[in-house]
Every structure is written in C-alpha cells, then in structure tokens.
Please model this.
Amino acid sequence: MTETRSVVAGVGSFLPERILTNAELSTMVDTSDEWIRERTGITERRVAAEGETTSDISVKAAKAALDAAGMTGADIDLIVLATTTPDYTFPATATQVQAQLGAGGAAFDLQAVCSGFVFALATADNFLVRGQAQNALVIGAETITRLIDWEDRGTCVLFGDGAGAVVLSAREVEEDGPGILRTYIRSDGQFRTLLQTDGGPSATGTVGHLRMQGNQVFRHAVNKIAEAIETVIERAGVTAADIDWFVPHQANQRILDSVANKLGIPPERVVTTVATHGNTSAASVPLAMDVAVKDGRIKPGDLVLVEALGGGFTWGAALIRV
Ligand code: UT7
Model:
C-alpha cells in the first residue's frame, strides 16, 4: 500500500559572516565567557551585516536546498517562510524570496517565533498531502539580532542570525518509505508575556525589543517539549529507541540535555549547534539539520525527530524519515 507523503528532497543553510564572540560581548555588558558557556553552552553567534536582510539570507539557504534537491526555483509552487524578523511589515518576506527564486504558486510568512520552522513544516505538509502543491520550500530565517537590546545581558548573549531551508516534495511512497510521518503543534497564549517584543506595528508603531523572562521560559520548556515529542512518537507508532537523530531547537544546551535525558535519547544521537550558532529562533532546526546532513550523520532512511518551543508560547515536534 502506498500513500502520499511530504518527502525531504534537499536541505540547505546560510550563516552571515560576522562572528560575535562571548569575549566581545563581555566588553559590551556585565557578563563573562564563563557565565555564558556554563548557563547556555554558547561560545559565539553570527550577526547579519548592515543591509543584509532576512530575505537575503533566506534566498541563499533556499538556493543551497534547491541545489541539494536538483531543482530550481521554477519547480517550487509553495514557500512557507517562518520568521519573526521580516524585511518589512508587509509584504511577506516569502514573496521577496519567491520573486528572487522565480518560484510560482503561493508564498507566505508564518509567525511562531522559535517554533516557526516546526509550524511551517506542519503547514507545508498539509498542503502537499492534500495535493495543493507539488514542491514546497520551508524556510526558517532570522535577523533576530535586530530585535536585541544590546544593554540587556539577559538576552543579548543568547541570540544569533541565520537561515535554513528544506525542499519538500509530494510523493507516493510505501508505508515504510521516506517522508514526514507526524507533526504536532501547540500554542498557549496565557504565557505570551514571558517572551515577547515590547513593540509592534499596531500596538506602538515601532518594532520593539525582545524581552524574555528566561528562567520562567526555561521552567516550561522541558515539559512542553517532552509532551510534544511523546505525542509524535506515540502517534507514529515508534519508540525513542527508533530515533536515529534528534535535532532540537537550539535555545540552550541545558534544555537540550534535559529533554534528551528525560526521553532516554543518548547524547551521541543529539545534533547540537548552539555552541557556534546561538539561538537563531526559527532558523535553528534547519540550520542544525543541514550541518548533520553535510557532515554525513543524517543519511537516507534515518528517522529524524525535530522540536521547538518559542514565544506565545508555541511549541511542537515532527518525525521525519529522510
Ligand atoms: O528560544 C526560545 C526559548 N527560549 C529559551 O528556551 C530560553 C530559556 N532560558 C534560558 O536559557 C535561561 O533561563 C537563561 C540562559 C536565559 C538564563 O539562565 P538562568 O540560569 O535561568 O539564569 P537567571 O535568569 O535565573 O539569572 C541568574 C543570574 C541573575 O543574577 P542574580 O539575580 O542571581 O544576581 C541574572 O541577573 O544570572 C544573571 N545573569 C547574567 N549574569 C552574567 C543573567 N544574564 C547574565 C549574563 N551574564 N549574560
């Protein structure tokens, strides 16, 4: 028996050139390399150059993913771009990317902050499986450092810029074949003020700065992420032992360790890039995925688990056979 699934046809990513180290941050705010590494696992992060926009880095990541898939922009009939840092309030950054790639169909942005890529994956999967698109680009891209208050040591040490992209193709596959097996997304607005910007077009007419009650977010993260993972695993009829690669949202090494430990996923099966990428919000999962595909860890046939939690709160997980 065959079924229609969204199959990963290619992965790509792009990081801005400029590296911001913990040492440099220590000259800007009252912090230290030791504190940042111990509490977060981060040693450096990237910062987009002046004039380098979310659409610029999205196009670079998308082109890399298209190359890996052996496709061009003309093959794409859906772009779902997850970002919290669009080029402009409107139109959607996805339309800018669509124009630059020469893609057709529909293109729109999706806002679920750090969970954006998982939400975008779930959204595109539904369009593909319903036969409403053939080849989708799912992009997670952020110039999140533009929202940072560089005097707030509680947040400025955490975040970085980057973009990752995945090409998904609707294909008829056998039951044990490749594709997205399950997705699960959730939101709970009662926690929205724990991680938010203090500005926006309608409320203040400004962009605002990122504000986070980090320890409160941390308290919720492990349990909510574990709940999402347990749900996709159960619904897909697999166990944690079947997972070849766990590619979590890269917010904090301590959160990744706690989640993996709670679910019994051994550390050598966890893809971590937080040390050199920092928290790149919606870009972190596809960036990490690309690293593990490029270095040969993720291979065809592997079962890959992704998850994220972000502002809103939003959270979710997906299981993909690559
Ligand atoms: O991606 C979206 C989801 N986001 C997350 O998952 C982030 C979740 N939160 C975290 O990763 C952690 O809560 C942080 C890394 C943000 C903070 O670590 P923490 O262990 O929760 O520290 P804390 O906020 O409880 O602060 C402990 C102390 C405070 O000082 P006092 O009040 O104990 O004197 C902070 O002022 O650490 C201080 N502190 C710093 N010290 C040096 C906060 N930021 C810094 C800093 N350098 N950069």
